[in-house]
Specification:
The protein is an alpha+beta fold. The protein folds into 2 domains: 51 residues, Roll (Structural Genomics Hypothetical 15.5 Kd Protein In mrcA-pckA Intergenic Region, Chain A), CATH 3.10.290.10; 192 residues, Pseudouridine synthase, CATH 3.30.2350. It contains 6 helices and 15 strands. The strands form 3 sheets. Strands 5, 6, 7, 8, 11, 12, 13, 14 and 15 form a 9-stranded mixed beta sheet that branches. It has a 4-stranded antiparallel beta sheet with strand order 2-1-3-4, with no helix packed on it. It has a two-stranded antiparallel sheet with strand order 9-10. Helix 1 crosses helix 2. The structure holds uracil.
């Protein structure tokens, strides 16, 4: 069995830190005995109550949302902008869902949504090597040397990014822009924008077309679909890899 605070968190009642506070102030009982000991491990058949209500294990939920642009990837926004949770169908709004990592306000594409905090940490944690595939509309034309810098691991200031897979999909001479496909295994702050800005090719539009084995192929902007058990299992497996393993498979979407 897990520790009491982890069980409370897994039941969706509070975060692990809030659960610890609940234990500390005597709101948690095991077999009708108040437990304030941190790290207490109940037995399998013990009855756990928070505020005198028996807790039950929360069913884990996993979804893929095709996030449109101009939507914030958080549960609440201090500036009152529409969040990824605001745009969910009302039937899902009662579930304690949150986004897995972030996409910028002006980026669209795949974002996973879940109520499973451990899953989120696994997907976006520093050890996760999950591939993220982007279609990037940049200003100007990428030279071979610039593409090589990305594939060898670009250095920007003190940050050295891990090698990326890069291919130029098309160039638009009239508008002096290019569409570039990039696969990265990290998820550093504004990573794609920072990398292209450093190469003097500011990002005009950004779409994440794939997160691990999950793509937005066939989905409409704003659409959400549950992940299959097989997809969740594959994501767990992919998160254990720390380098690019997949041969890039082109994700076909209207762009
Ligand atoms: N890189 C960015 O710069 N922005 C995103 O939204 C995702 C990756």
């Amino acid at each position: 069995m897990d520790r009491l605070q982890k069980i409370i968190a897994a039941a969706g009642i509070a975060s692990r830190r809030k659960a610890e506070e609940m234990i500390k102030v005597g709101r948690v009982k095991v077999n009708d005995q108040v437990i304030t000991e941190m790290g207490f491990i109940p037995n399998k058949n013990d009855v756990i109550k928070v505020d005198n209500v028996i807790i039950t294990k929360e069913e884990k939920k996993y979804y893929c949302l095709y996030k449109p642009r101009n939507i914030i990837s958080s549960v609440n926004d201090e500036h009152n902008r529409t969040t990824v949770i605001d745009i969910l169908p009302s039937s899902l709004k009662t579930e304690r869902l949150f986004p897995v990592g972030r996409l910028d306000y002006d980026t669209k594409g795949v974002i996973l949504i879940t109520n499973d905090g451990n899953f989120m940490n696994e997907m976006v944690g520093p050890k996760s090597g999950i591939e993220k595939e982007y279609l990037v509309r940049i200003k100007g034309f990428l030279t071979k040397e610039e593409a090589m810098q990305l594939t060898e691991g670009l250095q920007v200031g003190k940050t050295k990014y891990l090698p990326a897979i890069v291919s130029v999909e098309s160039i638009d001479r009239k508008n002096q822009s290019s569409l570039v496909r990039v696969i990265i295994t990290e998820g550093q702050y504004h990573q794609i924008k920072v990398m292209f800005e450093a190469l003097n090719h500011p990002v005009k539009r950004l779409t994440r077309v794939r997160f691990g084995c999950i793509t937005i192929e066939g989905m409409k902007e704003g659409e959400i679909r549950p992940l299959t058990i097989h997809e969740v299992k594959t994501l767990h497996e992919l998160s254990k890899n720390d380098k690019i393993l997949n041969t890039p498979k082109k994700v076909k979407i209207r762009y």
